[in-house]
Specification:
By secondary structure, the protein is α/β, with parallel strands linked by helices. The strands form 8 sheets. Strands 1, 2, 3, 4, 5, 6 and 7 form a 7-stranded mixed sheet that branches. About 55% of the residues lie in helices and about 10% in strands. The protein has 53 helices and 23 strands. It binds zinc ion (ZN). Its EC number is 3.1.4.-. It is found in: Membrane. GO terms for molecular function: 3',5'-cyclic-nucleotide phosphodiesterase activity; G protein-coupled receptor activity; metal ion binding.
């Protein structure tokens, strides 16, 4: 490539250079002692040996030389700028390189220096098969002088030839293109390989003219082809006629310029372009004779420019210009600018990178040879890219390198590649030897012909003319344009376009196809870089000249600049939904602000939900109103229900305000914001206050029920009323209102809009929401308090959890409360989390409010509605045929003012259904009626309350709406303690609730006592069962049996085991104003046994039932008698037994059950008859086993609630059970004598009662004694017992006879004499045993033994009456 920068020649410089040259030639001639004297004559080989030594070293560096003023430069004598000679070493061949350059070759020579230094580094360049031989280069680089001086060519050739000969150099490093023709013959003559930097084809033709000449540049004829191609593509689309004016102007003198433009013309013609005009000029001639050579003559050049694009050209005249010149183009450009010319394209030979860099104002028109550029990303082993090489140059030499430097760098590099290639299969390479012979040189030359190497400016390979074809057409070095970016070269690296020039170059390197897309190819006005935000006004371009015209304008409002591939900018309207915010010249539009409103769909959902709630509230309210007379509704306290409905609706109303939104705040919107918490808070208080109150009341009622049992007045129950709970609603409301008011006063919620995204300070996205400074605190307080309330409600629910009921509202309430609790707890954090998204936030809040209120309403009302609906259905098929509602009503409110109504209903039930009712039920109903009709109101209440369980149950179950235990619970919960239900409810509560302390098992009045026929009887019974009377040995259990309608065991058991509570309850029931503390008793219910009295009675009732009443002797009366007798004996013993409460209880319990299910026949009978029992118990204490087994089967039956020991520790239960079993088994008469002797033995021990086992033996003995106490009782009683036991014996005897079994002793009614049997029994069994007992319990000795003795006397006397002849002694 030739150098663009040329110093304009002037006369003085010319003269000086000539003088210097003459002087130099003289020197050279003298030094060489050559005969000739002509500088141009080549020196003989021998004479050249001293040439290198005669040349001085340069005093300036390459860069300094380029910076010299022209006159100094021209006077510079030839000098050696570099003589790099490495020391020879083993296996290293030093190959000389010669490089001769004119001064004007600029910095290009330094590239060769760089290359050689790098190649010589280390061992040098490895060659040969094993790469164990190396080559280093001896580079001699000489600046030969000013190429403009006369005779320079000769001088250049002389020095080159001399050095090649002197050094025997096989390689010449080519100099600048304009001296290539000088160097070419030297290479040919001396057969030195020569790499020329020349582009025109003729230099290489014919190929055989210079076999050692190689060309590193590609064919310069190919340079304009890319532009031609672009025009071709463009014309195919936009001007198919191809009559576009094409103007070609070139320097005629230079083959390079001429051939380049002619190549363009040939290509244009071939593409069918017709309107081509050629303007050529000789740069060194003076066509107009003004004394200035054409290349410098602005007038001549201006005329040429005018011809190409005249000043008066028509508006649609857009020629394509091809300019193959040097600096002349600068003048012509100025003219075209004046002419306001607007060409379709301009192609410039001189549009090299260097030129462009020096003429920044013409950069938009850079399009030409398409030379190597640092941005093109080639590399070699030393440098990753040309750019790195240039950086290296900067560090090494202190200046920015150029393209020429890269080219000269590549030449030694190629020589090294050549050597490596030539010797790659040689074991002992010796290049110098080869270069010394003609054959060797020819072989090496041929190797050079086939060399292919990647270099820092691309691939180098040679065609048949030994010219580089590696890169193809220079103009095709465009960069692929992908996705708006220019991609890199082969490394796909982003090219480093880091300044404006680079960016423009990128335009020039765009492929022809892409260029053709533009309306004007190149140089296109579109190449003009409009500043950001401005666009190229195409309309202006049509009327104005465009060369360097600044047609950039700012894009108007609401348009923005966009660019096509070819950099043409134009304004596009902003897309819908965006704007420039009133600014001109924007590069992008700012999207309209996204307000993030809640979507319409969601709002509709929200309103629908509110509508649903409103509808549900209305339905509920109407239902309430229409069913206001229904008991179910009335007992549910409709006032509270109305409040719940109203509260839920108010709370739900906040949904409406949640949907309020606006672009900016206003009073209305702010008010709506604040309305939400107000409605929610107030709604909560109104809705949940009643719910809480209901729960609270249930708890209070349940407590009151217990208090009642503890003897507190019924008044305390009545106090749990609406007033009491309405206070709670008020408190909740006041606290909620206080929080809300504080909020309102402190920092009311305002509508605020927060910018989420912005562009240039303009909001593009924002979220509007209700916010206040301390909203988290206030919201937290509001919700926190609500949670507290709900938590309290849950605690209340928990405390009343044992109150089960089919109907119970508390379950629903607690469910609703728990649900609400959950909703509030779950959604509260969601409010914070979903803040950014209004839609999510809205639907979460709306959903929470809706679900909360909806669920509460449903849970509260639906069960009720279903109940009422069911109750109104036709009567049950199971029950009698009357309206459940009408029946239920009076019964449920029987303690109210509806006694008469209730009675009326009962009458109707009895009258209308008398035929359908079973006899038993009829009787029960009559009892109820009797109670209702008798006595004053208060007594009636009591009576009704204490109706026997079965009766109460029955009379109510006859109605469809049965007042079972559960319904009682329901009534209790709903109405807060209706008296009619109190009894069963109280017992239920006691049964189900664990008492808080040991003394809370409470007072329990046996219902059967209450049911006693008259107050007189009650009084008698209560007297009989007083603690004092119970201790009596002459206690008349038969009387009691009679007075208690055949419930002796139940009463005695209750009186003894339930003492002192039973005595206290009876006293109160008889109207005595007494205190529990004044009563004596065992206090089993208050001891750590915590025997629940009602369960005890239930158990007694069952056990009593299981005694076989038909037995003359072994029936419930006997059991009651044994219990009482045992009690009496125990009391006689006082504290002497040292028995524990557990032991006393165990032995009494054993007494209760000791004969249960006794069949009325003895163990012997069982064994003889082989009854099932005998088989089960293997004939061992058969009946006793059965009794005690049955007792525990009943007690531990999980299907019933009879476990009186359920509050006793497990270990103690085992203990009690063990003791009871032992004791009952011990009542087996067959063990009697053994027992008596054992007890006697025990009594020998001192302090025998302190041993637990012995003590238990004694207690069992006492029980046994109570069991056989019939003959120890005062006469009337003992006779009665004797009759009964004899009756039972005879029945057994009858059976034995019937079964053919041996008749047991005393069982044959025909042979047995009563007195006889008794005498023996008393004399040998009872008396001695009681005497032993008397040894333990002194009172027995004093009070009982005499009676036994008396009885014995009586029987002896009786026997005498029956059969006086029989001697006493014979019995
Ligand atoms: Zn018995």
């Amino acid at each position: 490539m030739w150098r663009q920068k040329q110093v304009p020649m002037d006369i003085t410089g010319c003269a000086l250079r000539s003088a210097f040259l003459l002087l130099f030639m003289g020197l050279v001639v003298m030094a060489s002692s050559g005969p000739s004297g002509t500088a141009a004559q080549p020196l003989a080989t021998g004479t050249a040996t001293r040439l290198l030594a005669t040349l001085p070293s340069c005093t300036h560096s390459t860069y300094e030389v380029t910076q010299l003023p022209p006159e100094e430069k021209s006077e510079l004598a030839p000098c050696v700028i570099a003589n790099i000679k490495p020391e020879p070493s083993e296996n290293t061949t030093v190959i000389p390189l010669v490089h001769v350059t004119p001064i004007s070759c600029g910095v290009g020579r330094d590239g060769a220096l760089t290359s050689v230094k790098l190649l010589n580094a280390g061992h040098g360049v490895p060659i040969g098969f094993a790469k164990d031989h190396f080559v280093k280069f001896h580079l001699v680089s000489v600046i030969a002088g000013d190429a403009r001086a006369d005779g320079y060519h000769e001088q250049h050739e002389y020095i080159l030839r001399g050095l090649v000969e002197e050094l025997q150099a096989p390689y010449i490093v080519g100099s600048c293109s304009f001296v290539a023709s000088v160097e070419k013959p030297v290479a040919g003559d001396l057969e030195a390989i020569y790499m020329a930097q020349v582009g025109p084809p003729s230099f290489y033709l014919p190929s055989n003219s210079n076999p050692f000449v190689f060309g590193i540049h590609i064919n310069s004829d190919t340079y304009p082809l890319a532009n031609v191609q672009a025009l071709d593509f463009w014309a195919a689309k936009k001007n198919p006629a191809r009559d576009i004016p094409i103007r070609v102007m070139y320097r005629e003198q230079s083959e390079f310029f001429r051939s380049t433009c002619q190549s363009a013309i040939r290509a244009l013609q071939k593409s069918g372009f017709t309107n081509i005009e050629t303007m050529k000029f000789d740069p060194l001639e003076d066509d107009n004779g003004d004394g200035i050579v054409n290349e410098l003559d602005a007038i001549t050049l201006g005329e040429i420019a005018d011809k190409a694009c005249p000043p008066d050209h028509p508006p649609n005249f857009h020629p394509a210009l091809f300019v193959c010149t040097r600096t002349e183009q600068d003048v012509m450009f100025e003219r075209w600018r004046q002419n306001r010319c607007r060409p379709t394209s301009i192609w410039l030979t001189a549009a090299t990178w260097t030129w462009a860099a020096r003429n920044p104002e013409l950069l938009p028109y850079l399009h030409g040879g398409g030379q190597w550029h640092p941005a093109l990303d080639y590399g070699d082993e030393n440098f990753a890219s040309g750019k790195e090489l240039l950086q290296h140059t900067y560090q090494e030499y202190g200046y920015n390198g150029t393209y020429d430097q890269v080219v000269s760098y590549v030449v030694p590099y190629l020589y090294a590649k050549h050597l490596q290639n030539a010797y790659k299969v040689t074991t002992h390479p010796n290049p110098l030897e080869d270069f010394a012979t003609a054959e060797g040189r020819e072989r090496l030359r041929r190797d050079m012909m086939v060399l292919t190497a990647d270099t820092i400016f691309g691939k180098v390979a040679f065609d048949q003319n030994q010219r580089n074809v590696g890169r193809g057409a220079a103009g095709t070095q465009w960069l692929p344009f992908e996705k708006g970016e220019f991609s890199g070269g082969r490394r796909k690296k982003e090219p480093a376009f880091n300044n404006q020039s680079d960016a423009v170059l990128a335009n020039a390197l765009v492929s022809p196809l892409l260029q053709a897309e533009a309306s004007i190819v190149l140089p296109s006005p579109s190449a003009e870089e409009c500043v950001q935000g401005s666009f190229l006004n195409h309309t202006a371009l049509k009327t104005q000249s465009s060369i360097l015209l600044s047609a950039c304008e700012l894009c108007p409002f609401d348009t923005y600049i966009t660019r096509d591939n070819n950099v043409a900018g134009f304004c596009s309207p902003c897309p819908v939904g965006s704007t420039t915010k009133g600014r001109k010249g924007q590069t992008e539009c700012i999207p309209n602000e996204e307000f993030n409103y809640i979507s319409q769909g969601l709002l509709v959902v929200g309103y629908t939900l509110f509508g649903t709630i409103t509808f549900v509230c209305l339905v509920m309210a109407i239902w309430l109103w229409s069913h206001q007379t229904s008991v179910l509704v009335r007992i549910s306290q409709p006032q509270l229900l109305v409040l719940v409905i109203f509260g839920c609706w108010i709370s739900s109303l906040s949904i409406v305000f949640l949907g309020v939104q606006a672009e900016v705040a206003s009073d209305m919107v702010n008010a709506a914001c604040m309305a939400t918490p107000w409605l929610y808070g107030v709604g909560f208080a109104v809705a949940y206050g009643p719910l809480l109150a209901k729960l609270l009341r249930i708890m209070l009622v349940s407590r009151a029920g217990r208090k009642k049992q503890m003897g507190k007045s019924a008044r305390s129950q009545r106090a749990v009323g609406l007033k009491e709970v309405s206070g709670l609603v008020g408190i909740i409301l006041i606290i909620q209102l206080a929080i809300l008011t504080a909020w309102q006063l402190d920092s009311p919620i305002q509508w605020t809009r927060e910018v989420i995204e912005e562009v240039d300070g303009f909001a593009t996205e924002s979220v509007g929401r209700c916010e206040s400074d301390h909203q988290n605190a206030y919201f937290g307080a509001l919700v926190g308090f609500q949670l507290l309330c709900l938590l309290g409600a849950l605690v209340l629910s928990y405390q009343t959890r044992h109150i089960h009921s089919d109907f119970a509202e508390s379950g629903c309430i607690s469910l609703a409360v728990a649900f609400t609790f959950e909703v509030v707890l779950l959604t509260a954090p969601t409010f914070v989390l979903a803040r950014e998204n209004n839609n999510v936030s809205y639907i979460v809040r709306v959903g929470a409010v809706f679900v909360q209120n909806f669920v509460v309403l449903l849970l509260l009302f639906v069960p009720k509605m279903i109940r009422v609906r069911e109750s109104m259905k036709s009567p049950s098929t199971r029950g009698p045929n009357f309206s459940s509602e009408s029946t239920y009503l009076p019964l449920a409110s029987i303690t109210g003012s509806k006694w008469d109504e209730a009675t009326d209903i009962l009458n109707r039930m009895l009258d209308e259904n008398s035929n359908d009712l079973p006899q038993e039920q009829r009787e029960d109903l009559q009892k109820v009626k009797h109670v209702l009709l008798s006595g004053d109101r208060e007594k009636k209440q009591n009576k009704l309350m204490h109706l026997p369980g079965g009766l109460a149950r029955f009379s109510l179950t006859t109605a469809r709406f049965s007042v079972k235990k559960q319904s009682n619970m329901f009534l209790l919960q709903e109405y807060g303690g209706i008296d009619v239900t109190r009894r069963s409810v109280s017992s239920e509560i006691e049964a189900m609730e664990e008492p808080a302390g040991g003394s809370s098992s409470g007072v329990y009045l046996l219902p059967e006592f209450e049911a006693l026929a008259s107050q007189a009887i009650k009084t008698r019974v209560s007297i009989m069962l007083s603690w004092h009377a119970l201790k009596r040995w002459d206690f008349n259990v038969f009387d009691l049996c009679h007075l208690t309608d055949g419930n002796p065991l139940l009463f005695v058991g209750w009186a003894v085991l339930g003492s002192p509570h039973s005595q206290y309850a009876m006293a109160r029931a008889c109207g005595e104003d007494v205190d529990l503390d004044s009563f004596e008793g065992y206090n089993f219910s208050d001891s750590d046994l915590k025997i629940p009295l009602h369960t005890l009675c239930d158990y007694l009732r069952v056990i009593q039932d299981d005694y076989i009443s038909a037995n003359p002797y072994h029936n419930e009366t006997h059991a009651a008698d044994v219990v009482q007798s045992l009690h009496a004996l125990l009391q006689m013993s006082g504290e002497e037994l040292h028995a524990s409460k557990l032991e006393i209880f165990s032995i009494l319990l054993a007494a209760v059950v000791h004969d249960v299910q006794h069949p009325g026949s003895s163990n012997a009978f069982q064994a003889n008859a082989r009854t099932d029992l005998a088989l089960i118990y293997n004939d061992n204490s058969i009946l006793e086993n059965k009794h005690v087994s049955h007792a525990f089967v009943k007690m531990f039956d999980t299907k019933t609630n009879l476990n009186i020991l359920r509050k006793v520790d497990r270990s103690k239960v085992a203990k009690i059970r063990n003791k009871v079993i032992k004791a009952v088994l011990h009542t087996d008469m067959s063990l009697h004598f053994k027992t008596v002797s054992e007890i006697k033995g025990d009594m020998m021990e001192e302090d025998y009662l302190s041993d637990e086992e012995t003590r238990w033996d004694v207690l069992m003995y006492i029980l046994h004694m109570a069991d056989i106490s019939g003959q120890a009782k005062p006469r009337p009683l003992s006779i009665l017992w004797t009759d009964r036991v004899m009756d039972e014996f005879f029945v057994q005897g009858d059976k034995e006879k019937q079964l053919g079994l041996p008749i047991s002793p005393n069982c044959n009614r025909h042979t047995t004499l009563k007195a006889d049997s008794q005498i023996g029994f008393v004399k040998f069994v009872i008396l001695p045993a009681y005497e032993v007992l008397g040894g333990i319990i002194p009172q027995v000795k004093e009070r009982v033994v005499p009676i036994v003795a008396d009885n014995l006397e009586y029987w002896v006397h009786q026997r005498k009456l029956e059969s006086p002849d029989i001697e006493e002694s014979t019995v």
